[in-house]
């Protein structure tokens, strides 16, 4: 391992010998002094070297000066030298005087992307795009957020699962299913861990979670859809209704946001200009039908009365929740059974509605949750009602034939949460490597 000090730790060190490593951000190759701004994963630093008098015969400075002159932007270098605190240095009041310089990975001179390059071009060169400090921050935030969720789950006795991503059938809409060759037959890429997270309930696991990939053959090019995304899922037994799932969901988000704010609040403010709010509980809850009426009263009519909220409807109801409750989150509840999957439990005494919800955050849906139908005869009827062949779903329906507790859960898109948390325009900015209808590289 290269012995190196992270740039962020230099300020607290005393003057003296250090080794720093990173990539070249800028070079000022002056006659008398050479300056290099070095960046590593923790910050940036000024490197300096007075240029020795040129050789009388060759007119050249020494080897180090020559290699500084030959440096290209983006090259990875390792430098040993003398750390010096000096208030006059604008960049953090410290600099390192170059003693030795090792060019470990030389970059081609032309950077294929610039700050104003289109998102598509930036994604073509994602590894260079990710060198921007705000991009690295997105993934530090993601790490902290996931860690906080896991900590919550572990402290509350959840079991972590890794369900298979190769499936024999669809778990969500058949229209968004990727079919692949599987030896002599066909298989499908998992759209959601839905069936297998539910299976943990008759298995007696009680409470489970998974953070894993989900695939949707969705041909759209919106800012919120990917063909592969990371789904955050939880499923719990012994619930009375979807209200219990919403409570869990709130607590998890509070834990996640509190951890992100505590660790990255200042950086988020500096790099994204956002003061992160840890949501208060309970989040507002509005039945979908009422939400549509509220939106209509604001002058926007959701195109189809029997359909889900559309993106503009989501923005409008979110604006309403912000104005009325001062809240960035809002649960829309009691979706019509006509627009929900067969496995959502329907209202006792009103078959037309389900014990389900969508969670809207800053104008966009981030999650769907529900109480599941666990009574096998009702489940079969609901499947038939949706035009599904219960025989095709027999492996799933078997889960309910040998005893199962009441249960429910939710699925939440990780990149969407981050996009909306940081007010970024697209999940392309908050997905490490975005996958869409026309993007499989890099
Ligand atoms: P749903 O299909 O609503 O529900 O998906 C849950 C959440 O996953 C995210 N998501 C997506 N993110 C990026 N690109 C996509 N193409 C995409 N599709 C969905 C969204 C969405 O809210 N099985 C149920 C969940 C459950 O009931 O437990 C399900 O998958 O943030």
From TrEMBL:
GO terms for molecular function: aspartate-tRNA ligase activity; ATP binding; RNA binding. Residues 194-197 are annotated as: Aspartate. The keyword Kinase does not apply. Its EC number is 6.1.1.12. It comes from the Bacteria. The keyword Aminoacyl-tRNA synthetase applies. It is an enzyme of class 6 (ligase). L-aspartate binds at residues 172, 216, 368, 372. One of its GO terms (biological process) is aspartyl-tRNA aminoacylation. GO terms for cellular component: aminoacyl-tRNA synthetase multienzyme complex; cytosol. InterPro entries: Aa-tRNA-synt_II, aa-tRNA-synth_II, aa-tRNA-synth_II/BPL/LPL, Asp-tRNA_synthase_2, Asp/Asn-tRNA-synth_IIb, NA-bd_OB-fold, NA-bd_OB_tRNA. It is found in: Cytoplasm. Residues 139-442 form the Aminoacyl-transfer RNA synthetases class-II family profile domain. Keywords: Aminoacyl-tRNA synthetase, ATP-binding, Cytoplasm, Ligase, Nucleotide-binding, Protein biosynthesis. ATP binds at residues 365, 413-416. Belongs to the class-II aminoacyl-tRNA synthetase family. Type 2 subfamily. Catalyzes the attachment of L-aspartate to tRNA(Asp) in a two-step reaction: L-aspartate is first activated by ATP to form Asp-AMP and then transferred to the acceptor end of tRNA(Asp). Homodimer. This is Aspartate--tRNA ligase. It comes from Naasia lichenicola. The gene is aspS.
